[in-house]
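In response to a reviewer's request, we include the raw inputs and outputs for one of the modeled complexes. The two entities were modeled together in a single run.
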Amino acid sequence: MCDDLDGAIAGAAQELEAVLQAGRDESARKGWLPQGHLEALTRMEETMWVDTHWDIAWPVWPRGLGAKVTALAQKIVRGAISWYVDRIIGDQNRHNFTTYRTVQILSEEVRELRAGQIRDRARIEALSDDVANLKRRLFEAQEGR
Amino acid sequence: MKLAFFTPLPPLQSAISDIGEGLGCAFAALGISVDYVVDDGYQPESPAILTPSSIVNHRDFPARADDYDAILYSLGNHPHYHGYMYEPLLHHAGWIMLHDLALYPYVAAMTLGRGDWRGYLDEVEYAYGFRDMRIARLMKTPLADQWALAYPMFERFVDVNRGVMVHNAYAAAEIARRRKDARVVRIPSPYFLPPGVEADQAQVLRADNRAALGIGERDLVVGSFGILVPDKHIETCLRAFKRVLEVRPDAHYILGGSLIEGYDLPGFIQAEGLSDHVHLTGWMPPQRFAEMMFALDIAIHLRYPHIGGTPYTPVRLMGLGVCTIVSDIEPLAEFPQGACVKIPTGVYQEDALTAVLAHLAQDSDFMARIAGNGRRFIAAYHDVRTIAAQYLAVMIGEAGAGSCAGGGC
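The model returned the following structure tokens for the whole complex.
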């Protein structure tokens, strides 16, 4: 790549990194986790539990004899296969809960790391200012001598 | 040199058909005699490259196969556009210009889709060593795109052909990793404009296309182009755009392309209250599609998950000098941050996009710098004449240092 194009791209990339960092900081400011992450966690919570009992003809029976007979047949089939389905759903719910708990722990870990990162960045900036001040004072002292 | 070029062509609505036309023009300019081997059921509309004698129906190809010095298959994973080249790919060894890594939908359509269960299981066993329906089941899950990269199903095509040409290093490495003896060459995507587009009339095209949509000369125009699918995260783009309207109420968003069936983007636009600012063009023929891009200040082309191919639309947008925002994905690793804007995928995507878009909207100098870098980068590395020459060099056995085999990419 020719040098001036290289330089132009590198310069723009540096400025973009600052903009993207500002975006990440905005996410942090809003509650340490970005919006998409929070939404995903909420959706996971909402859908984590699978229920084996699907309502049939409840709280009211459907109108018409045919519909009532169909609903009754469905209730009987549901009861008859529950010994099989409940076991599978039980396994699924245990798995879902374990997954959710893992994601929750990792989220808390990420939150901690982000908070630490922001604290560290502030500390680095403060130290950089200190170093600049010390350099200036050293220079002034050397000049005075 | 006489080349048989299997490719869909306009008016088929596919980026690969546009690329076929663009490369065809460049091959012709290099003095290559090209026969376009095409499917039944449509008449190619590319007067710039086609003469009646240059079109060969795929059914006539086997009898003429020995007449060619090289065969080039432009292969994507859409069975409707590439189904006709399935049998030739397996029986007439040539070079494959592979646009996507994930060929499972293609292979499944050509076997299962025709009721050929035994053929499907043969292909699965050939590629992965088991003989059951587990991949078919995985493809019905919400993570189908990720599984499609785990089981790409390109193995037999790679094994029986002379070599594979891909557009990015990630795809080259993936093929080389799975097929150690394969000859894999990376050649960047070609940048070109469809015949009839007057690039030197950029200002006129910009003004005309804006006027056609009722957009002012100085308004900020953002856009996303191509077939509009959920994987392009258009809702995320529009939510970020809505935030930008707070600082630039004169902003507009052009959605240049067709919606896939069942994708209720108009409903989303209405629900977000963006109807006055968002313009849905629907499908446009290649020339009109490219001309509409001149109206843009900023283009957004997010893509995640990806299927290994280099998205073509950003190449054209960057080449036209539009400040282009893309997803930071493996197939775009060669596009440097600063020549375009690469934003992270996943949970940080929306906040990053909003921050970048707001910054660009308020700093037109910076936007122009990115746009200029992108244009120069594409001119330096993606010029269609250079790319066509690279394809030819590989096919006539003069690949040079760009080729690799045995995982060396």
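As requested, we also summarize the result in words. Residues 65-144 of chain A form the longest helix (80 residues). Chain A has a mean pLDDT of 84.
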